[in-house]
Amino acid sequence: MLDRRRLMLALGGAAVNHTSRAQPTGQPGQPTRFSTAPLGKVQPGSWRYQTLPKVQHSNDVAIVADDGHVLHGVSRASASFWATALDLYPIITPVLRWSWRVQRSLPVSDFKKQSGDGYAARVCVFFYMPTERLKFDVRLRHAVAQPLGPQPLPTASISYVWGGPQQAVGISSWNPYTEAVRIIAVDSGDNHAGRWRSVQRYLRLDWHNAFGGPAPRISGLAVGLDTNDSEGEAQAWFADITLGAE
Fold first, then answer.
1. 52 lies in which domain range?
2. Are 71 and 238 in contact (CB under 8 A)?
3. Distance, CA of 154 to chain centre
């Protein structure tokens, strides 16, 4: 169980470890746009491909042409992510926007069970929350998961997912492995499968509803597919992800 908690937090740590790297095709402080990346299995600017410890198989991902250049991923009982470091304040860039499409939802997705911790598509936002605000057991697990390195590990995150048919849009819950991760279903089921869906989220509101108080600094983003626990199969596409004003 601890291994899974560790990898959920380590994913954010991986994003943070690249704060000093240049973002050659993105706006300052913004993630590189997938639309500017060359086609193929290449590293799109500020984004870094992240595999996960203790997860045997990784997703197959590439930049593909789909009315522009987008990130495409295929997941078969696997999990991995593209992550990028940021250093932004939600009071300045409070709105997160992106578009995504899935071939179909993952039927076994279930917030409440570790075996259901899988989603056809996922967009994660990492934050620096003071550790004293964490519950004692969450703070302890965070200390165990803290990697050796110069950059601190994010202490909290919000994970926006394309949920299964039984998960209503708007429903939210803690990740079944750790209360440092809040999951929100922004799309679900197969009614819109195969279609591009545009999403807009107000980070300060989502943070307040999940953790309370003002939202701290944003330390990174990650996008990916996760079918490792559910041992399912999924396919998803992600267009540009941006943070900006209202």
1. 2-244
2. yes
3. 13
Structural domains in the chain (count): 1
Residue 49 to residue 51: CA distance in whole angstroms: 7
Which three-class secondary structure string do you get for the chain? Answer: CHHHHHHHHHHHHHHHCCCCCCCCCCCCCCCCCHHHCCCECCCCCCCEEECCCCCCCCCEEEEEECCCEEEEEEEECCEEEEEEEEEECCCCCCEEEEEEEECCCCCCCCCCCHHHCCEEEEEEEEECCCHHHCCHHHHHHHHHHCCCCCCCCCCEEEEEEEECCCCCCCCEEEECCEEEEEEEEEEECCCCCCCCEEEEEEHHHHHHHHHCCCCCCEEEEEEEEECCCCCCEEEEEECCCEEECC
**Cα 160 from Cα 184, distance rounded (Å):** 5
| pLDDT at 175 (0 to 100) | 78
% pLDDT > 70, the chain: 74
CATH code (residue 231): 2.60.120
Instruction: pLDDT band for 154, please (50, 70, 90 cuts).
Output: low
Q: What is the mean pLDDT of residues 58-68?
A: 92
* Nearest-angstrom CA–CA distance, 101 and 6: 29
Is the distance from CB of 48 to CB of 84 less than 8 angstroms? yes
Task: Please give the structure tokens belonging to residue 213.
Answer: 């108080």
Q: With beta carbons less than 8 A apart as the criterion, state whether 100 and 239 touch.
A: yes
> Considering the entire predicted model, what is its pTM?
0.81
